[in-house]
Amino acid sequence: MTSVVQRLRPALPDLREAPAAFLRTHAERLGQVTPWRVGREVLAVLAILTLDVWPGWFASNGRLSGWTLIALGVGYVTIFLTRLLFPALALLIATWVVFSADHGGVVLVLMLSYAAGYRIAPWQRSLLTAVLALALHMFAWGVSTPGLSGPFGQFVMLTVYGMVVALPFLVGRYAAQRNALVAALQEREERVVRERRMVSRQVRLRERNRIAQDMHDSLGHRLSLISVHAGALALDSGLGERQREAVQVLRSAALTAMEELRGVIGVLRRDEEPEEDQVRRTTVGGTDNRTVDAIDELVDGARRAGVRVSLVRGGQAVPLPAKVSHAAYRIAQEGLTNANKHAPGASVQVTVKYEPDALVVEVRNNPPRAKLPSGGGFGLIGLGERVRLAGGMLHVGELPTGGFRIAAVLPYEDTAAASDEPSDEEQPEPAKPTGIRKWAGVGSIVLAGIVVLVVVGGYTWIGSQPVTKVVSEELYDSVSVGQSQAEVMARLPGGAEPPLGDITSDAAPEPAGAECEYRVADVQTYSSRATKIVRFCFANGTLVEKKTHLQGM
What we know:
Elements (H helix, E strand, L loop, with lengths): L1 H7 L9 H14 L3 H19 L12 H17 L4 H13 L6 H14 L3 H22 L5 H85 L6 H28 L14 E2 L2 E2 L6 H10 L4 E6 L7 H21 L5 E7 L3 E8 L12 H12 L3 E6 L5 E8 L30 H23 L5 E2 L1 H6 L6 H7 L23 E7 L8 E10 L2 E11 L1
Parallel strand pairs: 3-4, 8-9
Antiparallel strand pairs: 1-2, 4-5, 5-7, 6-7, 9-10, 10-11
Helix pairs in contact: 3-4, 3-6, 4-5, 5-6, 5-7, 6-8, 7-8, 8-9, 8-13, 10-11, 11-12
């Protein structure tokens, strides 16, 4: 039992830290103000002034005017804005002010009830606020409508409370709980995405280390053998000048490949992502020689190897990010390599053109003299990924004349590519609510449904009851003072009374020594905002008075 009581007891804040926490919370809310929220507040204030203050739908004494109208409007707006800091206090004040007076205010109470349900988080505090609002409503109802009593009057009082206070309060609480649930699910989904990215990153790093080890053990060893044998062959005195130059080119290419392999292995073994100016470069004296400016040297090397290649440059040179410059060099390198491999003997043209908004690099070759089998295309796949990381676009395809073309458009600015974002296959499924969160807010909406069912069912039952105890105008006019009590009572209808509570209220004092019968008039006027009651008073077996009065609602 003790543990149950402790769970039901509301958590009291630390009184020393409560003011600072209160100011900090509302300062954060003030920093989140948007034009939409300001506009929403302005519309709510206009609705209150229009529907409650003027003309005041439920005012019984006509329109308010002058300073009274201004004071009422200022007071309503002040109570409405108080909800931003003290929603429970604003609701309680509005409940008493509105229901204890004759003027309107239902719109104000509706808005404050919704705001209180939305803003009061602990359910214990919400329950306490609802109970206090009911108590104030009951006292205010007894002050403002003393004539509407009895079971029907109590039912009407509870109906007004249920529809004006309890129902919007429960709807606001439901909306707050659903919003909190959505926020929690979004936070959980973001956390799952971050964890999935971390796992993917670890997997990529392990795969990088494995690839780097395989390349070091196999490819590095074989390139070293090629370099050593080429160096030994260059020392052979039986070689001619032309053969010696070819061997020297072979040895230089092997040494360059080894340097690039070391750079690739270094990048693969990095625990962090490679910097853009360190990706796959070969340094000479500490400077990068794999840039767009080094394409001239690349073309010269291809010419010395026997490739018929021309270089065309155009436009005004623009400083490029290292990632873009390196991608341009790799496009030219891959294009020359593919042309020499798949179209040996064909002429090749390399174009580097600085357009107004982008760099265009193109390598095209004429048809080969003999049709050769195509390769696997892994180099072009890697090239496409490199261009994408640089923020550009790559086009690869055959020419109408039978040749082949590789072209790329690269931006002048450094654009970040989402290379490390998880793919569609890696996206986690949205988190599904489980346990108590699955039913968050259901209790509030169920209670709201019960309130609506009770109100609708109650009024449906009342409306289905026959009402016969009413007096028509003809009957009232046909009865005259001086008739016997038995004759008049025989003509008055009996049966069920209308559910109006105490119909004797607001009547004039009864004649001394007389016994009076009260009935509801058959003809009622809505504009009078009251119920017409007729009264027949008898003394010594004779009708001594017949009178009508209005019972205030």
